[in-house]
Design goal:
Layout: H1 3-12, H2 19-39, H3 47-59, E1 71-75, H4 83-89, E2 94-99, H5 102-114, E3 120-124, E4 138-144, H6 149-156, E5 160-170, H7 174-180, H8 182-187, E6 190-197, E7 202-208, H9 220-225
Parallel strand pairs: 1-2, 1-4, 2-3, 4-5
Antiparallel strand pairs: 5-7, 6-7
Helix pairs in contact: 1-3, 2-5
Length: about 230
Amino acid sequence: MTKLEFYQQLEQQQIFLSNHQKQQFDQYYRLLFQYNQVMDLTSVIEEEQVYERHFYDSLTIAFNKNFNGLKVCDVGSGAGFPAIPLKIVFPEMELTIIDSLTKRMNFLNEVVQQLDLKKVTIITARVEEMDASFRETFDIVMARAVARLNILLELCIPILKVNGIFIAMKGQKGQEELEEAKNAIQILNLKLNETQKLPFITNFYFLKQKKTPLQYPRRYSLIKKKPL
C-alpha cells in the first residue's frame, strides 16, 4: 500500500488526514526504520508494508468511530500499534500505553516527543500488576497480538470501565480463539458487540456489562497455566 493508497483508503472511511498528520505518519515510519536497525521492533519494515500492515490495520478500529476525548489504553503496544496511528488521527484522545519491555518504551517515548503528541502516558509494567488506582478507569482498552483471547481478556478487562469497550485485534485464528474464550467472556461479564473481519485481521469489540470480580486478574503464571 503506497502512501497515496493509504490516504485514499482512509478517505473512503471518512478519515481525512491533514498535511501535518501525513507528515507525522511519515516521521513515525522513519523512526521505526531507524530504531529497527538496532532493536528489532518489527519484521515488517518495508515502507509500503508498514503503511498497510501496521498503519492501516491499526486504523481499522477507527472506522465509523471517534476516539477524541476518550480515555484509551493500549496494552502490549510493542512498536506502537495501534496506539500511535490512532493518536495521530485523534489528537484529543487521552492515551495510555502499557508494555513490559523498557527498550520498546524508550522508542515510544522518542516517537511521542518527535511527533509532538500530547496527552500520552507511557508506563513500563505488566498490566496485571498495575496499581489498583487504574482499575476500571478506561473508556476503551485495546490489544493487538499480545496473547490468546482467553488470557488477554483476564489481563485487560479489570482496567476497563463498566460500559467500556475492549477491542481485541486478532489474526487468522481469531474465531478459534473466540470459541476458546467463551468461559472467560461469561466470568468477566462481557458481551461481544461487534466482529469486524478484514483480510489480515479480525477485530472483536466486547462491552463490559458489570464490574470485574475482585479476584481477577490473577498472577500471570496462573493465568497462563490455567486460563479461564
